[in-house]
Amino acid sequence: MGRNLAVLTYGCQMNKYDSERIVGILEGLDFQLTEDLTLADMILLNTCSIREKAEQKVFSQLGRLKRLKEGNPDLIIGVCGCIAQIEGDSIFQRAPQVDLVFGTLNIDRLPYMVREVEKKRGRVLEIAEDCNPDIQSPLTFRESRIRAWVSIIQGCNNYCTYCVVPYTRGRERSRSSSVILDEIRGLAEQGYKEVTLLGQNVNSYGKDRSDDIDFSELLSMVEEIDGIERIRFVTSHPKDISVKLMYAMRDLSKVCEHLHLPVQSGSDRILDMMGRGYTSEEYLSKVDRLKSLISGIAISTDIIVGFPGESDDDFKKTEEILRKVEYDSIFLFKYSPRPETLAASLSNHVPTDIKEERFDRLLMIQKEITLKKNRDMEGGIEEVLVEGPSKKDRKKLTARTRSNKIVNFSSNRDIKGEMADLKIVRGGLYSLDGEVIERGC
Ligand code: 5AD
Ligand code: SF4
What would the 3-class secondary structure string for the chain be? Predict the structure, then answer.
């Protein structure tokens, strides 16, 4: 009889991708996935430490799991991901109910670690500092049958002064193009239509290897794979996005017209303190170039409000950049000091109420922009990839435009996993409504 496994995933796509790897490996050990924590024989928390709040969530969940373990002493509780990588051993002190702690680079060792925990019924800890991304076990479990993430580069060399990622994910390590292409060919054979190439900074792809294949060239190679209809990628660092990549986005028909380009702040003074390596003017000139080269490109971004020392004037510059770029969507964050990072030791931390005010203000501005942009799409025709029933209304289907917008629509055929043309009849804040246009002969 198989055992039940629950995996709780916090944070970014990289963690979601890692959770898929974890589930795939553990399914191979006869575990089956459950969402019901009370039925689980093992619960793994794949954690995020990007902001303090994410960390607090994990420790309050561990508090709840402690009670579960009191009723079921055989329950195995594991902590992995970014908090595990940084905190290591100290997690056992803070949460003695935990049996297993492993880092972001130790996932492939899971069969061994689980055996150890079961054998010893004692604590197991593994935190590696380095690994070879080309010898990771193949990913055998994926949440979607239509869209898949494919890791192309792990880690980050940028050391932005607020960010903990270089400490939790290590230095940049690109996977070899042949390993990546084999994985994508396999996905195409299984019927996947869309891949998202994943990395903390995909534009650095290949810089740490000697095979002379950069990110644009990798995109051209993925374009050649039959069966894959759409290619996306995240995340791009504005300082590294090259004209060559812009041309590749323009010329490769499968590469979707959407770019996530985190600006973080509109103030040059703050950008400099963040160590981002570009000015607002340089950023805007890249955005202009992208818009003029790639018709209909959607741009999204990340913004941090309340970085230490951010004045009203600095904040105004962020407001300005929002209005100048007219992003399709933004991810907003309140600055959160992280251990080991340079920014945490700066003076002049911005009070919480000001961070909240600035956060709300940007949210309001962006809502107006997003709504206007989505309304402007009304009457237009969009090619979409159909993902399945809509979460809000099971009678409807949900699909995604090339520019990464969600469209809900009715159809009398189940066309999940297919491409379709939709006429946009309503643009809302969070999604669009569409109507099917039969593809003519
Ligand atoms: N505080 C707030 N936001 C942060 N991010 C990264 N580190 C921090 C921090 N210490 C945000 C950045 C990044 C996104 C993934 O998370 O905007 O692009
Ligand atoms: Fe963090 Fe900067 Fe690297 Fe992004 S580029 S992961 S913000 S250090």
Answer: CCEEEEEEECCCHHHHHHHHHHHHHHHCCCEEECCCHHHCCEEEEEECCCCHHHHHHHHHHHHHHHHHHHHCCCCEEEEEHHHHHHHCCHHHHHCCCCCEEECCCCHHHHHHHHHHHHHHCCCEEECCCCCCHHHCCCCCCCCCCCEEEEECEECCCCCCCCCCHHHHHCCCEECCHHHHHHHHHHHHHCCCCEEEEECCCHHHCCCCCCCCCCHHHHHHHHHCCCCCCEEEEECCCCCCCCHHHHHHHHHCCCECCEEECCCECCCHHHHHHHCCCCCHHHHHHHHHHHHHHCCCCEEEEEEEECCCCCCHHHHHHHHHHHHHHCCCEEEEEECCCCCCCCHHHCCCCCCHHHHHHHHHHHHHHHHHHHHHHHHHCCCCEEEEEEEEECCCCCCCEEEEECCCCEEEECCCCCCCCCEEEEEEEEECCCCEEEEEECCCC
Q: How many A from CA of 390 to the centre of ligand 1?
A: 30
Q: Separation of 202 CA from ligand 1 center, angstroms?
A: 17
Confidence at residue 141, expressed as pLDDT on a 0 to 100 scale = 81
Residue 106 alpha carbon to ligand 2 centre in Å? 21
Which ligand ends up closest to the CA of 276? Answer: 2
In this predicted structure, the answer to whether residue 439 has a pLDDT above a threshold of 70 is no
Domains detected in the chain:
3-126 (3.40.50.2300), 142-256 (3.30.750.210), 381-437 (2.40.50.140)
* Residues having CB within 6 Å of any atom of ligand 1: 50-51, 162-163, 262, 264, 302, 304, 333, 335-336, 338
Distance 257 CA to ligand 1 centre (A): 24
Is the shortest distance between the CB of 201 and ligand 2 below 6 Å? Answer: yes
* Weakest-pLDDT range from 33-37, 122-126, 275-279, 374-378: 122-126
Does the pTM surpass 0.90? The reply is yes
Q: How confident is the model at residue 440 (pLDDT cuts 50, 70, 90)?
A: low
